[in-house]
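During the no-cost extension, the postdoctoral fellow (Dr. R.K.) reprocessed legacy sequence entries with the updated structure-token encoder. One reprocessed record is reproduced below for audit purposes.
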Amino acid sequence: MNGLLDAILAEDATAADFANLPVPQSYRAITLHRDEIGMFEGLHPAERDPRKSVHLDEVAVPEVGPGEALVAVMASSINYNTVWSAIFEPVPTFAFLQRYGRTSDLAARHDLPYHVIGSDLAGVVLRTGAGVTAWRPGDRVVAHCLHVELEGPDGHNDTMLDPAQRIWGYETNFGGLAELALVRANQLMPKPRHLTWEEAASPGLVNSTAYRQLLSRNGADMKAGDNVLIWGAAGGLGSYATQLVLAGGGFPVCVVSSSEKAELCRAMGARAVIDRSAEGYRFWRDGVQDQGESKRFGKRIRELTGGEDVDIVFEHPGRETFGTSVLVARKGGVVVTCASTSGYVHEFDNRYLWMNLKRIIGSHFANYREAWEANRLIAKGLIHPTVSKTYPLAEAAQGVYEVHDNLHQGKVAVLGLAPAEGLGVEDSQKREQHLPAVNRFRVLDSLCAEDAVQGAENPPYRGIQPTRPV
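Re-encoded structure tokens follow.
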């Protein structure tokens, strides 16, 4: 590993140098263990502590198959599917690995008693399998998480429709929270040159997901001037949705859960922000949806938009918010949904949908073209990473815990082989142009921490309060 890291850090290393480097037999990885899938039995998902299930293990390097690439992972990040994996919710991921393992001899590599998780990476290609021509050892890359077979016809118009579509690092093994990772070559994209490893690793899943939901014809097909309601607008997914709406000429209405997250949305350029905690919205009472609260929420939206309802609702919380989302969308509007972090069973009053000709669109990650375009916006400096905090690999479990308990802003990054933060920048001039935006979420996080240490007697930034213990 030391020789590998030296080659990556050396500016003059060539493709031949990387091709000639010996690949280690094992590597460190964040894993889950199959024999622990019952450890949280009887506990509500909100009460499960992922720090108990997440391990740092030394695991064997997998064989590189046709069409695949072995990547030295410099950094990765935590996504909500990492949380689901770690709390074995809604089902243990080992069920995915077993099902996949039965499909072929090569796929059987994935069915192991441990699962290397993680669906983001930034790193360097070490080896490529037979048939790979677009990438070679030494290429600096990021990876999106769409894993497809494309043996049937259904996926050839939109690869997300491939019957064998899976999410890498969640429904497959050998994910990105590790020192090495195994990916399909068609998951790779160029690393944005002005970003550090941890910054480049953080947007992949969430930025691509938000791109498809909002901008793609497979999603809401947003146009300039659209009002877009964004739940969790300062979180890992919502922070990219907010940026994409602004970059596309839309008007985001950002919903957040605290004053410091409201400040972040304003710092990104949003003018309409609803702090649902401060304004006391409770969409459910005694297990029943309170439509009066949803209508009060809709009235607040119109106050912020100049009397207009929203054209698009960017949905991902699920059960807690879905009925309100359907109600507040304008006549003919669209609710585009992915994930369901507050519950999968959604309830809504169908009169508001059918009589007002609204639409519900399901959206799941993104196809390669959509992920490529989303990464291109990052590389052009139009969309910026939202890293607020970075952990070493040995402390990744703490990052999973913070995302599980919503104690974070933006994205939590994890270093793989990178020995420190701040490495990997190739275009320092471009970085300097965008540095305030690149550091936006870090600045808030450090100010929150400083405020907590100082006892919040004279907070260094008005309106910011600590969101987690320091």
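The radius of gyration is 22 Å. Residues 451-470 have pLDDT under 50 and may be disordered. The remaining legacy entries will be reprocessed before the final report is submitted.
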